[in-house]
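Before going further, it is useful to explain how the protein records used in this thesis are read. An example of such a record is reproduced below.

***
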Amino acid sequence: MSSERVGTPLELTSAGIFLSLSVVAGQCPAPYPYYRVDGQAVVTVAGGAVTRTYGYLNSPESESGWMIYAAIAHGSNCFTFRYITLTQAAQLDNLATADRMITTFQLA
């Protein structure tokens, strides 16, 4: 993973990755209607199966990029991981790292 200091994905270099973690009450949201899923894997988080996807993000409201996405339902909340990159190479190079981060997420 990159150690760039950025405030938005537009500030990334071609090797950078922007990580957004969030928690929302209720059901897990769909990633985005303008997110094209190119692949997925099932990973285990706290003994449960979680689908991690990756693909192309083409938002009409903001920049385009490549995303790795996972949503973890736990109790009455949903925890989401969104990794945004500007290049497909950076996305694919970081799939294994994202999986390690997602699978080691601790739910209390």
